[in-house]
């Protein structure tokens, strides 16, 4: 488990999984079905490493080789190896990173040099005291009702504000760019504002 004092111990190079629309946020979990041989090799290598980490990042545009400037480091928290050589994994987000440089490698998967300093706060408790929780929950409730989403409201109601903000973007159909905008928002309060603007734009 990475602690707030461990930023200097974070990996200096990271294998990445570029996938449009699949955005990992710190403090959340992302299930993945890994079947391409090059990424199966990447998971093999990650599982053999001490931290069991990899990076999730979006391509600049679908089908393009260039990458978005910000991704998220994730730890493989669970995995199952299927009989057809697939991996079913759960990736737990730890800290966002900026891509400093992409490396020339001999591995079939891509690797980058990450820069974590801008997002060091991801490893620390988030300040949510100034966020109007009742307003946030009212907006989420209205959105879920409008979309006829069957999410368990009792669970959401009892969920800490920080986690509501982290996960609520996954309750609705945010597009790849909207997810990226949330990912690049440095403060959790800014991510809340981006989320509110999205919900309002759906004309609830």
What topology does this entry show?
Elements: E1 14-18, E2 29-34, H1 37-47, E3 53-57, E4 70-81, E5 87-102, E6 111-115, H2 133-146, H3 153-157, H4 161-168, H5 176-184, H6 188-201
Parallel strand pairs: 1-3
Antiparallel strand pairs: 1-6, 2-5, 3-4, 4-5, 5-6
Helix pairs in contact: 2-6, 4-6, 5-6
Largest sheet: 5 strands, mixed, barrel
How many beta-strand segments?
6
User: Which regions have little confidence, pLDDT < 50, spanning 5+ residues?
Assistant: none
**Largest beta sheet: what is the strand line-up?**
1-3-4-5-6
DSSP summary: helix tally: 6
Q: What is the chain-wise order of helices and strands? A: EEHEEEEHHHHH
Give the overall shape. globular
The rounded distance between the terminal residues' Cα atoms is 40 Å
Oligomer: single chain
Radius of gyration: 17 Å
Descriptive key words:
single chain, 6 helices, 30% helix, five-stranded mixed barrel, alpha+beta, globular, 6 strands, 24% strand
Give a brief rundown of this model.
The protein has helices at 37-47, 133-146, 153-157, 161-168, 176-184, 188-201; strands at 14-18, 29-34, 53-57, 70-81, 87-102, 111-115. The protein is an alpha+beta fold.
Structure, explained:
30% of the residues lie in helices and 24% in strands. The chain is α+β, with helices and mostly antiparallel strands and 204 residues long. Strands 1-3-4-5-6 form a five-stranded mixed β-barrel. β4 (70-81) and β5 form a beta hairpin. The longest helix is centred in the last third of the chain and has 14 residues, at 133-146. The protein starts with 13 loop residues before the first strand and ends with a helix. The mean pLDDT is 84.
